[in-house]
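Subject: complex prediction, re-run

Hi both,

The earlier run crashed halfway through, so I resubmitted it with identical inputs.
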Amino acid sequence: MAVYSLYILNKAGGLIYQSDNDRHPGVNKLTANDYLVLAGTLHGVHAITSRFTTSMIHSHDPNTTNIPASRLSGPNTNKSGLQSIETDHFNLYVFQTLTGIKFIVVTSPIPTTNLGRGELNVQLELANQLFKDLYVLYSDYVMKDPFYSIDMPIKNPHFDSKIKQLIN
Amino acid sequence: MLYSFYIFDRHCNCIYHRRFSLVDDGATNTDNESDVAKLLFGVLYSLKNISSKLGDQSTNAGGFNYLKSFSTSSFRIHFLETLSNLKFVLITDNLIDNVRSVLWELYSTYYLNNIALNPLSPVDFKGDEKITNPNFISQTDQFLRSLPVYGGQ
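This time it finished cleanly. Structure:
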């Protein structure tokens, strides 16, 4: 799973950090404005899909919940909103922290031939591992930076270089 | 496990909705005008835009980038759009990875034979017209119920 891009959104859906993988571009370069639109759209779609959950599966089988126990623990508070998108050329994963910050990574797709039952969930677990590492970096290099003001764009060279190491 | 099946036409209307249920017979065409159907269409439209914008469209990458599916922690939504802008949508639990062939079968066999090639069926579904063709409904039901993904095994 190669990481193509990373976006960080503040709790209002604004793009506060963006990093692209230089070695595997994988996705199109957009204009700065289009990236803001992209972030806002994903934020909105996440909010809408979190309203779906009960109505989509209601009265089907009220006794089962389909959320695996492994996904109920951990720092990801993204329990009902958009978690992943699969397209022909990339996959996209969303992680939301307790404070509403969203981490979004765009990765290489899984070849269709490898798709069996549950393969996408294996990829989701991999992505969640990556999110944990990203969250640690964010806490260490952004939250502990005394000059950082919350919800503002992240311009920290140490954070930048650590992120590059992680995703390249 | 299969939860429901939607068809949207090129005018953004939900022309067919079938909800499946393990405890009763489910429902047909009851929620076409509901908020959920409209929100679902909006989400699919936005995500389709994102995937075509962000996806590398160069020929060596394989041409146009299609949205295949997206998921939340409790369900996965599978998507297929035909050249005539009909959108076929299946909602399943998120253990099911790929039902593209099923969506294609629903379009190419059942929709084409019963709706598109049927001279008595309208070319365009206007206003609140829906697919009520009993052959289409019973055949797609039978087909979907016969699939391994239906019961989730």
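The longest strand of chain A covers residues 3-9.

- K.
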